Amino acid sequence: MSTAPLDVLADFPAIPAGWAYLDTAATSQKPRPVIDAITRGYGETYATVHRGVYQRSADMTLAFEAARARVAAFIGGKPEEVVFVRGATEGINLVAQSWAATQLKPGDRILLSALEHHSNIVPWYMAAERVGAAIDVVPLTADHRIDLDAMAAMLTPAHKLVALAHVSNVLGSVLDARRATELAHAVGAKILIDGCQAVARLPVDVAAIGCDFYVFSGHKLYGPTGIGVLWGRYDLLDAMPPWQGGGSMIDRVSFEKISYAPPPGRFEAGTPHIVGVLGLHAAIDYVAGLGLDRIEAHEAALVRSARAALSQINSVRLFGPDDSAGIVSFAVEGVHPHDVATILDEGNVAIRAGHHCAQPLMELLEVPATARASFGVYNGADDIAALVEGIQRVTRIFG
Ligand code: PMP
Predict the structure, then answer these.
(1) Residue (of 110, 88, 282) closest to 198 by Cα position
(2) Any idea which residues carry the catalytic annotation?
(3) What CATH number is given to the structural domain containing 359?
(4) I need a surface site. Which of 200, 240, 357, 387 has the fewest CB within 10 A?
(5) What is the number of the ligand 1 atom nearest to the C-alpha of 165?
(6) For the whole model, what pTM was predicted?
C-alpha cells in the first residue's frame, strides 16, 4: 500500500508547502469547497431558516434541511434522527442531560472505557452524580484497545448505558462498534458511540452498527467549528424531553401550557449555526468524494510507515495498536512531550503534546502526557519523513 498523498494538498490553502500538519485529531484543515460554501453562505445566500416566508429564507431552509438529509445518508440514519449541535461535546451532554438524567435511577450503572476523551466522561459523571448512578470502566487490552471480552464479563442488567469512543483520539484504536453494541443490548443497555475521530477516518453506518446514539464534530471532518451532530434512534429521541428551551423547539407556547416540537427540532432551540451546517454539508461531500475506504487505507498506510520508522529509534516508545486509525502516540525516553513538540515545530512539523483530554488514560499508560502525530487526507510520505527526522534531532539534542 502506498503512502503517496491522495493528491489533495492543493485543496487546502492553509497548508503552506513544507509544513507537516500532523494534528488532524485536534482539528482538520479545511478544503476549498468547505471554505467556498461558508463564503457563499454568508456572502450570497444568507438568511435565517424555518421562519421566513420570503424566498431567500425558504431557499436557505431547503439548503439547511438538505444538509440534514446529507448527514443522515452519510452515516446511514434518517434525517429526522439528525440533531444539529455545536459539536460532539454538546451532543454527549444533550444525551447525558435529557436521556440519562430522566431514564437513570439510583443504583443504575454506566459503562465507559479507560481511553475515553473527557467529553465522554465528565457529562456522564455529572449525570450519575445527579441521579445516584455509578460508573464502571472497561480496561484496555495489552495492545491498548477497549477490552470487549472484559466488557462482556462486566456488564450486568444494572448497566443502562454504555458510552465508548469509536476511535481513540490518543491511540487511534478502533472499536468493534457492532460487537460492543451487541454486548450492551444483551443486558438491555443503550449505547452511545463517540465518533469524533471515526467519521473522517473510516466508513460509518449507524444502522449496521445498531447503536442508539452516535456523535461527532464537524471540525474534525474537514468542516467548520461550532457545528456537530447527535444522531439518535427516533423512538429514543421522541421519548426524550428537551434540554434547552427557546425558539424553534416548540409546538405551541402559552403561559399556561407549552408543547414541544417533535425531534429533531425539539433539541434545536434558538437560531442554529446555519452557515456551519452548509459547511458541514460541503465537508461530507468532500470526504465522500474522496471515498472513506480510500481515506481509511491511506491513513492505515501512513500509520504503518510512521510506526515502522519510529520503532527504529531506540528511545521511542509507541502506544496503541499497529492498526490504529490515523493516530500515533509516542514518548521519547527522557524528553518531555512538550519539548518534543517544540523541537519538531522548529522543523516545521506540527504535532500535539499533552494529555489530549484523556487524563485517566495517561494514568493507565503511566505517563504525564504523550506526543501525538495524527494524519489527514493531505498527509503523505514526506510528512512522515519530516516527523522522523525531527525525532532524530530530538534524540541528538537530548543525547
Ligand atoms: N471525543 C473525541 C474522541 C475527541 O477526539 C474529541 C475532540 N478532541 C471530542 C470527543 C470532543 O470534540 P469537540 O471538542 O469538538 O466537541
Answers:
(1) 88
(2) 357
(3) 3.90.1150.10
(4) 357
(5) 3
(6) 0.97
